[in-house]
Amino acid sequence: MPADEVGGSRLYGKGSVTRVRAGRGYAYTPTEDAPGLTARRTHSELAKGEDRSAVLARFVSQLGDQDERVLRSLLNGDEAG
Predict the structure, then answer these.
(1) Contact yes or no for 5/11 (Cβ under 8 A)
(2) Which of 16, 46, 72, 74 has its CA 20 to 30 A from that of 10?
(3) Are 54 and 46 in contact (CB under 8 A)?
(4) What is the rounded average pLDDT for all residues in the chain?
């Protein structure tokens, strides 16, 4: 199996890509856009930590003013941020 096929199989197993048969191999397509992928990674990292509150507090404390405004807007229910 070619190296890219191995990586694709791993990503497929994780649900990060879909695949369709293309000749003797597969053609892979991402299941999420870049923001969705970043969100998935963030959730994965949070799941690793023993103290989610500390991780989230540290993250929020390091936000810039604009990002903090966007986060506050989203938490208040404004989808557009």
Answers:
(1) no
(2) 46
(3) no
(4) 87
The confidence score (pLDDT) of residue 15 equals 85
CA distances from 66 to 29, 72, 73 (A): 33, 10, 11
Instruction: Give the other-Cβ count within 10 Å of 19's Cβ.
Output: 15
pTM above 0.85, yes or no: no
SS3 61: helix
Res 37 pLDDT > 80: yes
- What is the spatial distance between Cα 5 and Cα 9, in angstroms, rounded to a whole number? 6
Give the residue ranges of DSSP H helices in the chain.
3-14, 34-48, 52-61, 65-75
The answer to whether 17 and 28 have CB atoms below 8 angstroms apart is yes
What contacts 31, CB < 8 A, 6 or more positions away? 15, 16, 17, 18
How many CB atoms are located within 10 Å of the residue 33 CB?
A: 9
